[in-house]
Structure formats: structure tokens, C-alpha cells
Amino acid sequence: MLMLRFLTFLFIGIGIFGTITAVEISEEWWRDSFIYHLYPRSFKDSDGDGIGDLNGITSKLEYLVDIKVSAVWIGPFYKSPMIDFGYDITNFTGVDPIFGTLDDFKKLTSKAKSLGLKVMLDFVPNHSSDQHHWFQKSIKRIKPYDNYYVWADAKIINGTRQPPNNWLSLFQGTAWTWNDERKQYYLHQFAAAQPDFNFRDESLNEEMKDVLRFWLNTGVDGFRIDTIPSLIEDTRLLDEPRLPNTGLPDTDSDTLRHIYTYDQDETYDVLKSWREVLDDSPGPKKIFLTEAYSSLADVMKYYDYGSNIPMNFMFLGELNNRSTAYDFKRKIDPYLNAIPDGQSANWVVGNHDRFRVATRFGPKRADQLTMLAAVLPGVGVIYNGDELGMENRVMTWEETVDPPGCNAGPLRYKTTSRDPMRTPFQWDNSTSAGFSINNKTWLPVHPNYKTINLAAQKLTAASHYNVFRRLAALKKNPVISKGTTKLVVINDIILGVIRRLPGKSPIVLLINFSDGSTHFDAAFSLNIPDKMSVYAASVGSHIKVGATFDTNRIELPGAASVILKLKSR
Ligand code: NOJ
Ligand code: MG
Ligand code: CA
Questions:
Q1: How far apart are CA 465 and CA 552, in angstroms?
Q2: Residue whose CA is closest, atom 5 of ligand 1?
Q3: pLDDT tens for each residue of 50-83
Q4: Dist CA 356 CA 37 (whole Å)
């Protein structure tokens, strides 16, 4: 395992005092780092149209270096009618003019390279836009496109035309739309404007491999694969069983057990074929992050087929602000035990599909998950703005533009719309939070930008920004990258995570799951030194970095989390 992890040790040159400097060049650059998930429409607008763009991102790359992330994963900026804001693609290798040009992208990657930042793209293989010429030709049964998509005949019941089965779109309602020209239904696991591809068609997969090759040739370092579990569906087109008592309308896809539309075995073989494409690409190792909200066993399987980071979404769904310290331990321990030898764990703190962490867990706990992601072994994945504690912006029905929100209607859109977590990045307190010179932006700026913004947080020692920078730096500490991990629950309400490596100071994370202040003896419960120093503390805890803690009588304020370490080591 160690062999695999640190493939290359290069001894470069003789230092000025004649000593040899060992520089560890890890081929596996993503390990023990934070990856920054950037939503391009909302990061930085360079041309004043109120929508973020590539030149905007390029102008802010220094910020990503400043917060010490290893890589940026940029959401889709390909040609798109923007029904699903870029996840509905008409040209997989073209840049949408909203975002700029291919040249702009090349400038972005070359600047990122010069800054030592890796760049990863969003690969969206499950579907295209219905405006894609492949789909238009598929409608007309023009070869080789005729089988590029999942087409099926209607079911005729009592003389009326019905979809082939009860499958539901994740964006509400039937997953089938009738095409009057081809006289068949097509499948769409998302919006009707996003027809699903048929990965049983070899030429289709060859096209998608070419897409990977195209972007690899521009010098990208990897891809996040969108919605991989829905890649392949069972050909028998059987109805999916209904789940009892969901309390949801029958049109909601969460009312079905997705045994025929998700996690099918052949999906893993397709991933393997893409892995080969990545491995053929010269230069530093390229990686895949895979998006799968699947069972632990199904998520683990992605490692065997070529994913480096099968994203771990336990902080987004399975754990919430009602979870106890025991709930966290009960989820984290089995996950860590399941990681195959030589592979890396990962912790997703937030993304553009789920409520922001400061909203899910409350502003006082905005740093809690990032601290866990930092102290636990492996990669942390952070969503832009979460490092500032940005919050969801409540949208009115009239302001709602996200398709799952619009499709759910005015009574339910608040539970399904993703607009609230996609508002513009809050750079400073100027017009549109410094995101755009335009005071009208594609989604409204959160009104709290006057106080929650990067410029203000840079000037405040106890800020989410400063906490995050310390956390990202901590990832490089050998105790974090190589040490042992133990989770202990103290007094039923404190979760302790202890990382140890012989000869080094232990690193200890303590999280108070109650809202009241709590006294406890961590020295005894965790077997740690009597006096330790505060390395980082959650914003609002009023605990100062560098303060000394008597670990045998700690008082931790309600909802606070703190990371302790010995000062000297
Ligand atoms: C997952 C993406 O994260 C989400 O934003 C998108 O709507 C769906 N996949 C469909 O591509
Ligand atoms: Mg713009
Ligand atoms: Ca599919």
C-alpha cells in the first residue's frame, strides 16, 4: 500500500549547505487534500451579464491557491440550452458562449497549472440535451444514432397509449416522453429535455470515450462523473416496486425502489472502459470522482472499476442536524472499515444539489463537517461558498428556475428546488457581492452578503475562511495522512476523533452535539496529553487559536467544535 501511495521519491539537487533535499512527488496528488467544487454560473462573472464564466474563474484562481485546495472540479460549461443549467448538453466538446470559448478554457488550465492547481471537469454521460444532433437524428432513425438513446414502444391499455412502465424521473413525473415522429417513448431519468443514452450501443460509448480524450488533450487532470448509477437500465422494462408510506405524491421518484434503473451491474463495466482511456493519457495520473447516492456496498464497488473517489455522501443525506454523536460514529466507522486496501476515503461536505452545510446543520455548526472532512483520513470535497459559511437563500415561487423545483409546483418547490444553494459567490460587500458589476444576476444574491463575504472574513481572525485555510493545511500533516483513526463518544454528546502517529502529537477533534455548554475529561476518555493547544475552533465558539486546553477539564460551548494538537510537534 505504501508502495502504491508514494510512488516517486525524487532527490533533487544539493541544497546550498550541501545537504540533499528529498522532494516527495506523489503521483497520487489528490490524496490527503481538499478538492474544490465550483459551480461556474455562480462563481465570478467577468463580462457583466450576471452569469459566471470561465474568465471569471481564471481571474480568481489565486484564491483557490490561497485556501490551499489541491484541485478544482468545475461544473458543466459545455454548449447547452440550459434547461438543467448545463447538465443538458448539445455539444460535449464545445464551450457555451455564456461561459466563453475553448481558448478561455485553455487559458484557465494553463494558469491553473502554473499555480500548481489541478483542474477536473464534469463528465455528463447519462444523457444529452434533446436538442443534441444525435438525438434529433435518433428520432429519425438515422444510423448510427438510431440506438444512441433508450427508446421503447407504448403500452396500449384500453385503447389508449401509455408509457412502457411506471418509472419516474428524478425531476418528478413519468420518466418517459412520447415522440410523435419516431412513434416511440424515450427515457429520461431527469428532465424531458435530457434523453437518456443507451450504453448498450458500442458506438455511443466510443463517442463518449472521445469526449474524455478531447478534454484530456487539453490537459485536464480528471473528471467527476455525473449520476453514474443511472447509466444503464434493465432491458425488461419491468415496473419498479412502490415503497410504502413515503408521504410523497405518486409522481415523486422517491416513492419507487429503483431496482431496474439504478446500480445495474453493466454500469461498472462502462466505467472500466473509461478508466482505460484515462490510463492511456500521458503525464500525471488522472482521476475519476463518481457521483452515486447508492448503498455502501455499491459505492465501494466503484473503486474496483476505476473510480479514485467514489463520493461519500453520508454528510449530505444520512446524517443531519438531528443526528447524534453515536449516529456519526455508527456511519463513519463502517465506512472507514469498508475502504479497500490502498484506496482513499473521502468526505463530501456539500454540493450544488443539496442544501448548504450552514443551512443543513445551522450557522453555528457550519464548520463541523469541514472539520470532520479535514481530520478524518482521505479527501475532502468542499462546495464553493461553504468555506465562507454561505447560507441558502429562500426563493419565492416566482424566482424559482430549477426544473425539479418548477415541476414540483408552488406547494412543494421548496423541498425540491436547488436554486437556494446556487446563489452567487459572496466576494465582498459591493454590488452583487462582487460577483458581477451587474446588479441583476441569474439568481439573486443572498442579502446576507453585506456581512458574510470573503473580504470581511479575511479581516476577521475567527472566520470560516480562516478556519478552512487551517483545515486544508492540516490535511498535509503526516498524522492525518498516515496516522490511525479512532472515534469515541464522550458523555453521550461529544464526538472525539483521535488521529495518532508514533513520535508525533496526536490530533484531536471534539464536537459538541448538544446546544448547551458541556464539561468533560477528554484526557481520560481519549488517553491524550493533559495540556493541548487549539489548532482550530468553530466560528461562534469564541475559542482562540493557540489557547491552551487542560484536557482533563474541558468546557466546550454548545454546538462548538475544536481541533487540538501539541504546540511543539
Ligand atoms: C446530478 C447533477 O449534480 C445535477 O445537478 C443534475 O441535475 C443531474 N445530475 C442531471 O445531470
Ligand atoms: Mg458572464
Ligand atoms: Ca440512464
A1: 30
A2: 353
A3: 999 999 999 999 999 999 999 999 999 999 999 9
A4: 13
Tally DSSP H helices, then E strands, for the chain. Answer: 17, 25
Terminal CA-to-CA distance of the chain, rounded, Å?
A: 26
Range of the domain at 530: 482-565
The enclosing domain of 341 has a CATH number of 3.20.20.80
Over residues 392-431, the pLDDT tens digits come to 999 999 999 999 999 999 999 999 999 999 999 999 999 9
Q: Taking the CB of residue 173, how many other CB atoms lie within 10 A of it?
A: 17
The one-letter amino acid at 223: F
* From 39, 129, 190, 261, mutation site for ligand 1 pocket: most ligand atoms within 8 A of C-beta: 190
DSSP 427-445: --SSGGGGS-SSSS-SSPP
| 114 CB burial (10 A radius; 0-12, 13-18, 19+) | exposed
Is 46 within a domain?
A: yes
Total domains present in the chain: 2
pTM: 0.95
Q: Say if CB 118 and CB 66 are below 8 A apart.
A: no
DSSP secondary structure letter of residue 127: B
What is the 470 CA–ligand 1 centroid distance (Å)? 31
Q: By the 8 A CB rule, do 550 and 520 touch?
A: no
